[in-house]
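Render this sequence as a predicted structure.
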Amino acid sequence: MVLEHKKARIIKDRVFTIIIIGLTILSILPLFHITIEICIRGLQAIMQSKLDFFFGVPSPPGSSQLGGIWPAIIGSFVTVLLASLIGIPISLLTSIYIIEYPKSVLSKICDKLALMLTEFPTIIISLFIYIVVVVPMGTPSAFAAALSLTIIMIPYITIQAKEALRSIPFTYREAAYSLGLPRSKVIFTIFLGIARRGILTSILIGVARALGDTASILFTAGAATYSFYGLFGHAGAIPLLIFKFIQTSYENWIQLAYGAAFILTISTMMIILILRLLIKEVKL
């Protein structure tokens, strides 16, 4: 009787294990298929255009030539860089304030607001910046797009940096303050150094989130296709180019969209790998 119950349990365990593995494979297959499709078609587009893919402009619709995505690359670089320069300091200071002054009303508001913004539709942020910045300026611009991406980045960096700072053992805090050092020096010299792996990871998440977001810059960048018109002029971006070109019926533009998607995917993966390789351990 005991052996029969044991065999029944073993059979049930194996059946449920097989079901879970099968469901996992089914959930991964679409992502795997999309990734393979992007890699194959993206590499084909890059090999066809060669260096012109990175330094040229898109060829006219329906052309036998592909051209390149240089305006989109420079547009993404400028907008994400400007968003990082604005968003990272704000995010780090906010996370420090939340950890160091947890009972403050403002601290609690910032904490709840950061959590709320991670679930906020990015298209609403784009419309907000459009009304507040684009309409008064009279034109979409890289600056307006950067502001949209800043709002996207801040909650992700704030939440992750907050958790990194919270993970610092209390004994380290006691030891740092027992030395008689000013609070600002303890925070910016010791605590940020100890938590730097988590902080850099938070920055990575924020940058990757901003790099691949389309909706937040849909109404703010201007989607320039053939040139970059400066910080306060129309700007393109890789996600916008993909969104625009993949919907057309022109084969050369569709190929460019796949090539751009491949570059975007590889860029995000490379950022993650580089940071993981550079930050292997925490040195006190």
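Summary. The chain has one domain: 70-278. DSSP finds eleven helices and no strands in the chain.
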